[in-house]
Amino acid sequence: MSKLTKNQKLALEKIEAGKSYTLAEAAEKVKEITFTKFDSSLDIDVRLGVDPRKANQMVRGVVTLPHGTGKQVKVLVLCNPDAEAAAIAAGADYVGLDEYIDKIKGGWTDVDVIITQPAIMGKIGALGRVLGPRGLMPNPKSGTVTNDVAKAVEEVKKGKIDFKVDKNGIVHSSIGKVSFTSEQMKENAREFINTLIKLKPATAKGTYIKSIYLSSTMSPGVKVDAKTIDD
Description:
Blueprint: H1 6-13, H2 23-32, E1 41-48, E2 60-64, E3 75-78, H3 84-90, E4 94-96, H4 98-105, E5 113-116, H5 121-124, H6 128-131, H7 149-158, E6 160-164, E7 170-177, H8 182-198, E8 209-216, E9 222-224
Parallel strand pairs: 3-4, 3-5
Antiparallel strand pairs: 1-7, 1-8, 2-6, 8-9
Helix pairs in contact: 2-8, 3-7
């Protein structure tokens, strides 16, 4: 087992063992225990009381964070020529079709989000092996397959993210930066958690939100008391 660094030890000393913090306290604590020289991401991990192996308990959705992600999101729009101007005006970083499909087939995936039109999906299906493992495959449920590509670009640029529960029943996502104020961090986390609550499957029994942790890049997790989300 690797030894803890000085900063890791210091961070752990600042977290009270076994304590669940209010959401506001957790946001402040994450800022306090982050020692990276770069602007760390604010991450959230929520363990849900669902069985992802059952189709009727799969939790997947989208959320627009009040304060964005703090990240410059690179967006590729694969569309017909008549939609290109609107996509560019909305702020898309790359716009086109066949030339980008060929680039992706060659291994190029230097983007964060790909948006396309329903009529184009037939051409994009063959890219699944490249895009799927990287989480880049457009999907109607996440709003990345739409006829209004300009609106989709604007939403992504403003902080719209999609998420999905993993095979262990955990939803993990980056929801901001540690350079945000603790209030901004709290509000982004609250919006994310409340969105999860709205998506609770009717077939999920027992406790739905089992645990919530906030952390930053390379920091330990800070446990959040789920009862304090709306405080």
